[in-house]
Amino acid sequence: MRLAEQAAPMPLAPDARALLEVKGLKVRYGPIEALHGIDFAVAKGQLVALVGANGAGKTTLLRVLSGVHRQSEGTIGFDGTDISRLAPHRRVALGICQAPEGRQVFGPMSVEDNIRLGAYRRQSADLNERIDQAYVLFPVLKEKRKLSAGTLSGGQQQMLAIARALMGEPKLLLLDEPSLGLAPLLAAEILRVVDRLRQQGITILLVEQNARAALAIADFGYVMETGRIVKAGTGPELLQSEDVKRAYLGM
Amino acid sequence: MLSQFLQFLFAGLTVGATYALAALGYTLVYSASGMINFAQGEFIMLGAMTASALVAAGVPLLLALALAIAFTTLVGVTMAKFAVEPAKTTSMTSLIIITLGAGQVIRGAVQISLGKGNHALPGLSDERPLHILGAALVPQAIWIMGLALVIVLVLFWYFNATMHGKALVATSHNRLAAQLVGINTMGILTFSFALSAALGAIGGVLLAPITFTSYDAGTMLGLKGFVAAALGGLGSALGAVIGGLVLGIIEAMTAAYVSSAYKDAVAFILIILLFVVAPHGLFGAKSSHRV
User: Fold this and answer.
1) pLDDT for the residue A59
2) Is the model's pLDDT at A8 over the cut of 60?
3) A234–chain B Cβ distance below 8 A for any pair
4) Are residues A176 and A160 in the same domain?
5) Average pLDDT score over chain A
6) 3-state SS string for B203-237
7) A104 touches B at CB < 8 Å
8) Which ipTM score applies to this complex?
9) Which of A120, A144, A169 finishes a domain?
10) Residues A93, A122: Cα–Cα separation, whole Å
11) Who among B176, B181, B187 is closest to A117 (CB)?
12) Is B197 exposed, middle or buried (0-12, 13-18, 19+ CB in 10 A)?
């Protein structure tokens, strides 16, 4: 029997509410099944890490959660309602915001336009104040706000993608490999920001290849392998687990 | 000599302005979806034919023009919703063939309902030409160039100063990121078809008083518009406008100084040269994603 079935896990204390609840999620790309039935949940206010090797299906899972790729089976519940068939822009309106993997900014547009577009579904009178808050979080973006986003370094584009997602006032923030390809110091800085956002009360699903760093700040974690969730536990539990150590932490 | 040259230049700019509007239509749809809408020329014809039918039925001119533009826009939306959107997950080639098919349907429907003859449309103001340095300029030509300029300015404002316009530009740069910030990219696609149909129809009703129109007038105008858009580097609004004007002027000059028999060949010689010499268009390399 696969670990996945044993682990079909509920990370929640009985009284905690799940903000996101995924059941039996299967995804195919043409004839190939990429996700083979995923069950997991994210409790309100928690920082949940999703770790696993390249090609395990983590990015696919996030794309399905945002609605840009459709599941072939399974349901997605958000804040008590079924959003399985909702269009991507409606999910953003509900507060599911994603900072996608790797430099997905609007390259030729200015940094500030990129940030403003993050608030496309959240046009309000205090928009300028919220932009200032984003600049407080990432001061380097303020310096470069008039430059086109494509001229930023990889790390700065990553910050921009996160800032843009935050402008959508997320109830659930999906972060796909925010530290990918960054210098260690910058990667640590980004994860510090992630931790700070959690303390502000934003629920976060963090996808990372850097399992150690992600699990160290996570309340709960899932380990993915070839389209399945094979292990679940609190951050410290997973960090101590022999399997996880061997496979992902290089110990 | 000069007066003759000016005469040809005016003719070129007038036709060029309508090519520019058609080219903007191609550019809009291309920006929003990455596809080429080969029904664009039929929008030009449909606008002109509908307007002429309405005028013939006794509808006042301005109302007829407005109704014709609105109707063409509606056809554009219908096409996006029922022909393009359901097939959005298939290949780009299929989508382009769908637009060719939709174009044939529009053309066939007009042929059946309004006949094969040539149709005229009155101009926006009286027809006495103005004389500038010995060259005659018909008032309708001034209307065409003036309105085209206004439309281009409004489009620039829309793309650079409104949130909706920026969303369309953002979609052209990165569709995935656009979806993730909550832009309804399907809505943007429909909107781009509506806007390009409207632009085509406006060009059609403005040009018809000068050239006449018929059910098959859209094919050539559409191809010319495509050449103009390609000349400007698909996806560049400024390029589309310049491409349209350049094509119009070269055509007029060829007709005047070489032979009017080669007038239509110019566009196609240009596009072959373009593909060989500068495949990204004259403005494509620098600003292929500017709208």
Assistant:
1) 93
2) no
3) no
4) no
5) 89
6) HHHHHHHHHCECCCHHHHHHHHHHHHHHHCCCCCH
7) yes
8) 0.90
9) A169
10) 8
11) B181
12) buried
**Architecture of the domain made up of B2-287:** Orthogonal Bundle (1.10)
What is the pLDDT of chain B when averaged over all its residues?
90
Q: Which structural domain range is residue A157 located in? A: 104-169
The residue that leads in pLDDT, B266 or A249, is B266
Asked if residues A55 and A42 have their Cβ atoms less than 8 Å apart, the reply is no
Same domain, A90 and A175: yes
Confidence of residue B270 (pLDDT cuts 50, 70, 90): confident
Asked whether residue A85 falls in the same domain as residue A174, the answer is yes
Chain B residue with Cα closest to A167? B181
Q: What does the pLDDT read at residue A40? A: 93
The predicted structure's pLDDT at residue A251: 58
Taking CB atoms and an 8 Å cutoff, what residues of chain A touch B169? 106, 109
Nearest 5°: phi and psi at A187?
-60, -45
Q: Quick check: A68 and B182 CB within 8 A?
A: no
Instruction: Please give the residue of chain A at the shortest CA–CA distance from B188.
Output: A89
Q: Which residues of B184-195 are buried (b: 16+ CB within 10 A; e: fewer)?
A: bbbbbbbbbbbb
Q: Identify whether residues A235 and A152 lie together within a single domain.
A: no
Dist CA A6 CA A1 (whole Å)? 8
pLDDT score at B17: 93
CA distance A231 to A8: 9
Joined tokens for residue A106: 């609007």
* Residue of A97, A109, A165 with shortest CB distance to B173: A109
pLDDT at B284: 60
User: Of A108, A123, A161, which has the smallest distance from its Cβ to B173's Cβ?
Assistant: A108
Residues 42-81 of chain A with CB under 8 A from chain B are 66-68
Shortest Cα distance, chain B CAs vs residue A251, angstroms? 37
CA distances from A251 to A56, A91, A237, A239, B229 (A): 20, 40, 15, 11, 59
pLDDT of res. A16: 61
